[in-house]
Design goal:
With 415 residues, this protein is of the alpha/beta class. The protein is built from 11 helices and 17 strands. It has 3 domains: 147 residues, 3-Layer(aba) Sandwich (Glutaredoxin), CATH 3.40.30; 112 residues, no CATH class; 89 residues, no CATH class. This is TlpA family protein disulfide reductase.
Amino acid sequence: MTIFRSNICLTILLLFISEMLLAQQDPRKFDPGLEHHIGDAFKGPEKVQWMRGDVRSIKWKSWHDKVIVLDFFDTYCTSCILSMPHLQKLQQQFGDKIQILNVTWQDKATLDKFFATNEYLKEHQVNLPVIYNDKILRSMFPYQAAPHIAMIYKGKVQAITFNRLLTTDNIEKLLNDGRIDLPWKNDFGKGSLTQDNSIEDIGVWLSGYQSGVRGQSLKFEKDSLTGNYKTSIYNREPYAALINTWGKIVIPRALLRAEQVVWNVSDSSHYKNFTNSGEAWDVKHSISYERIDRIHRADSVQAKVVLQDLHNFLGIKTYWSKKRIKCLILKKCPIEKTEKVFDGIVRYEGTDVFSKFMAFREDYPLIYDEAKLTDILEIGVFNSLDELNEQLRQYGLELREGEAEFETFVVEEEK
């Protein structure tokens, strides 16, 4: 039985994401001597083990005039699997003009079981060729987090990029122009905004998207050679950078939902990616930041310095406020027992934990905890507010529509 307590309810989603990212990392080493870069000539391995699909052989030279797409994946990578129907559609759309290959280090037995039992891929009739037991291609295009895409055309590496950039428009552009400029996905790339790639210079820098650099939240570190202190952020949306910085100053008391953000700006889409368009948005709007100091400050103090830098560079100010928001109010009511049995019971240590955890469910309004009980709540699966209330009434609680004051985060452009 799952138990949610006050000290973990605000971090459970972050822990889940971290575990998923770690799960997508194959710890085995690759041969750095085989690594390919954009513009390099490509000569694929002479022999590969492959299955599925409708290609009779994999002969790289015979595909010289096709766009070859290598889609590196793992069977436990959710985003890899979700992208496969899209890849299948692209293969069908472009026909003989392209060849998409799924590539994995996993063995045939694992893949046979995976494809035999995955109903999602069966439903979408995914049947692309799969290269398995791969070591050489992985060494040519090393990565830490899947999915990972390499595009080859006319015998050269044209792109090493993100799967969301494998679009109809980008494939057509590569076919028409013979080349394409896409953001470089380099899971090992380290950012540096200083001219000589060192941290000997003292100063502050703000730039845009850095191709070939991994996204990084606010980080503090000391250089062992110079003794200087470096603070950095790379390839982050401005909103995320600001929230992350504020998190070092004020510990958030609850998850910040969309209705708790006030945008006093001309165009909020310049600060936050609302469309989940990934790297295409990042290239236009994400920011990278560095600050090199000789003196050391406590993290919370340094974060205040960073926040002021971001405010000055971006021409904005951010602060916390409060406003009344339509919500569900958790109130006390007479106890009503039910004979219905609910599956998937989860235990919450009090109404505060329950209310905060429910904030993760964006299909329900925010919940204002008026009851403030510390008793254990055992709540099972529910598909409607009525089903949820039926369970809550057993504890003398009920959710009713209303309005309440919530903490809000304000982003405001300076006039």
